[in-house]
Amino acid sequence: MNRARTTVLTVAGTLLLLAAMEGVGRLGVLGESWPPLTQVVAALDDPITRDLLGRALAATATAAGTGFVAGTLVALVVAVVGALLPPLQPGLDRLAAVVNAVPLIALGPLLITTVGREGTPAVIAALAAGFAVFVAATSGLGAAGAAHRDVFRALGSSRRATLLRLQLPAAVPLLIDGLALAAPAAVLGAVVGEWFGAPRGLGVLLVSSMQNFQTDLMWAAALSAAVISLTAYAALAGLRVAAARRFV
């Protein structure tokens, strides 16, 4: 019952948002910079525009996916190291906080000179996604109850055995929550990374269309990035529901 109610509210909210976007564009409340949604969709009837947007979408999705996977793996390794070596945990937490505090846009010029223009979007996506996964993994690994830890300790289990048989299973729901938050962050990171001169991608398309006053194309690119983010979030949120049944 609760799931059906949530689904109905989600669909109703989405339709209300789309209607509001259309209404604002039709009424011209925000001027020509906010076209009706139907006008943006109609622009995709042009094969050239559709092909251009499709290639940009594929490039951004590839960079975001690569960064998401890389950031997740690095974050998990660092979180596991902290769990196996508790004295290192405070230092790893501070390091992650410092790296996250650096504005992603400030890293662009440095990354261009090190990994190149094509690699920058994926690296920034990895940095954006990694912190969310690290926080979730660290919290999840510490979520196991003290009583369970005492049992494992009394039975003489090593830290490695405790990690594999107790902490990791207990961390799964929180870890998936972190992945759900990291996926949209990876998309945003990839788009920001493309602003620094990447050869292709939605970020490049956004900047180009904005500079050339191609409002419909600009909105189409922005909505495409939003669709990628929402799709990834919805998929991982669904996975969270399944994991909750198994591990909670």
From TrEMBL:
Keywords: Cell membrane, Membrane, Transmembrane, Transmembrane helix, Transport. It is a multi-pass membrane protein. It is found in: Cell membrane. The chain crosses the membrane at residues 55-85, 97-116, 122-147, 168-197, 217-239. This is ABC-type nitrate/sulfonate/bicarbonate transport system permease component. Its main location: membrane. Gene3D superfamilies: MetI-like. SUPFAM superfamilies: MetI-like (SSF161098). It comes from the Bacteria. It comes from Streptomyces pseudovenezuelae. Residues 53-240 form the ABC transmembrane type-1 domain. Pfam families: BPD_transp_1. Belongs to the binding-protein-dependent transport system permease family.
